[in-house]
Amino acid sequence: MAKFVKKGALDRYPEVSGGQSDPNCTHVILTEKEYSKLLDKVSVAEQKARDAKYNAEREIGAAKQEARYAAQKAAQEARETVEAIEDDLAAERAESAHQRALNADLLRVAKERANADRGIRPKKQHTGYGVVVSGEKEHRYRDGNRSWRKVLLWETVIQSPYTIDLSEEVARKQIMDELLHQDAAGERLIYRLGLDAFYDGSYGAMMDDRQWCAEPAQYNIMLKPRFQANGRYGYWEVIFFHTKPLGVIPKELRLR
Question: How far is CA 221 from the centre of its chain?
């Protein structure tokens, strides 16, 4: 049994009366059996600590390895996804380019046929558009105070090269795109007629829209057009008001 002692003179260790709690206790004397048992406990505790450390390190290593694998797998999947998207985009661009080229070719052929049908020469160089009539017309509109006013505008009818076999929606978009398309030099087809700009609205709205143009009277402005299907000649026509007369109509915008 363990003894609780204090160090005395001449290397003697007398036992203290208060045991382990005695303030004079400085040493504990164990039997050989108790000491061996204590060493065994220490050894077991140290082994447990080593095992715990080993297991923790192994779990951490496994977790890191799993995380690296997951990250690599995610990165690979992301690369494959990106590659697939890029392949799809490349295919889509190629198909779009093909369709644009095909549509441009079909439009060119349609214009040439329309020109030939209407006796327009030269059929390959002509725009396919032609001024049917242009004249002055009184136009009523409401001003900013909602009062009715009159103004003398010009109304022009332009025949397109697109037959009434096309739907209104398709014809409208194609015609407006071609009339207003701005080329590399900044030119539009309507400019050849002496028109300076296009306002996508009514005359009254334009006069109130000072942010768009502070002095509209200085320009020949094309207003939002109307469309009609000319059953007699079989072509779509665009009708619009503009603020000043047309300039000299060039040959490529005449029907004869």
Answer: 33
Task: Confirm whether 100 is domain-assigned.
Answer: no
Tally of domains within the chain = 1
Would you give the DSSP letter of residue 73?
H
Q: Tens digit of pLDDT for each residue in 56-99? A: 999 999 999 999 999 999 989 998 888 888 888 888 887 777 66
The helix (H) or strand (E) run that includes residue 47 is helix 32-117
Find tokens 């052929």 and name the residue. Answer: 109
- The answer to whether residue 156 sits within a structural domain is yes
In whole angstroms, what separates CA 3 from the centre of its chain?
85
d(CA 252, CA 256): 9
Residue 98, domain member (yes or no): no
Q: Which pTM value belongs to this model? A: 0.64
pLDDT in tens, 104-115: 788 888 899 999
The Cα–Cα gap between 82 and 76 comes to 10
Domain range holding 151? 130-253
How far is 199 from 188, CA to CA, in rounded Å? Answer: 14
Mean pLDDT within 151-167 = 96
Residue 147 falls within a domain, yes or no? yes
Query: For residue 251, what are its two tokens?
Result: 């040959």
